[in-house]
Amino acid sequence: MRRTAWVAVVVVVVAAAAAYFLFFRGSGGPGDTEVTASGTTGGASPAAERRAEGRRGRRGGGGNRQVRVVTAEVKMRTIDNRVAAVGTGRALRSLTLSADVSGVIEKVAFTAGKPVKEGEALVILESQAQAIAVKLAQVKVDDAQATVTRYEKLNSTNTVATVQLETARTNLAAAKAELEAKQYELRRRTIRAPFDGVMGITNLVKGDYLKDGAAIATIDDRSKLLLEFVVSERAATSIKLGQQVRATTLSLSGQAFFGTVTAIDSRIDPASRTLRVEGTIPNPDNRLLSGMTFSVSINIPGELRPSFPGLAIKWDRQGAHVWQVMADDTVKRVGVTIRRRDNDTVSVDAKLQAGDKVVIEGLDNLRPGLKVQVAQAARPQ
Fold it and tell me: Are 332 and 323 in contact (CB under 8 A)?
């Protein structure tokens, strides 16, 4: 019983002490103020002043303290729009050679992968029979020519009738026509290159029988390479004849090849919603092959856009933005849409002008209307 009473006394004392502390500390009790001679409340203690100053700082945004920032100047740049596509290379001229006549191959006169000149013999068929036919036709021509010559001399003395002379001349013309036909048949026994190009692989060898119309090999004129690619409907109206084309291929890594747009289709493909385009690239050393895959790009002149270091870009729930420093050193939030990145520089759509200043360092504590102290202006990009 006596122990219980003692515990109750201790609890009452602790409660009273706690009430005293809360009452006098919360109201700035004794020690926080002093009574002047006139009986009014005087200056607060240093601790109370620090607490009050802290409360004022939180309510007033830190008093007169300014945020130090680094800015960069906005520049206006013309940003080219880039149309990218994947294209396939095609030879300027390409043909699969075939025979006009049948016969046994006497000689394959070309090597796959090596260039040939227009008119150069590629495959020669056995032609003994045709050569004999030419000789016989030549004999007929010679005989007919001799007859005409003799009759012309006799006709001058009226020894041969004019009708006989005309008949001899007709026979000569017929003999010459027959000779030309036999010579043509002989020429057909040799298949020649139709243009300058590079020959493909053939399976034909000497002694093979080549049928009329059978394929011999391909020939490609690669002096220029045609690039076939498609662009989206959105970019279709921006493609013009003569625009520069840049092409790269994994086969020749690190090298770029330049040409021009040389053909544009007349309509959009309704199935794929794309436009077919053709470019031409010079290929003087024949390094580019028909069938290669190329990454193709075309630069289209764009509009002037604000540009500045990418460090200025911040993101929040409303999207990308920058902090613009106004004439009175206050900051303003400006929404931006990034259009292009070039290394450390971005070009954007935004309500910014050349010469405007945007914050690139000290971005974390900014809010609209806050006055800042510009520590250093970065060099314009």
Answer: yes
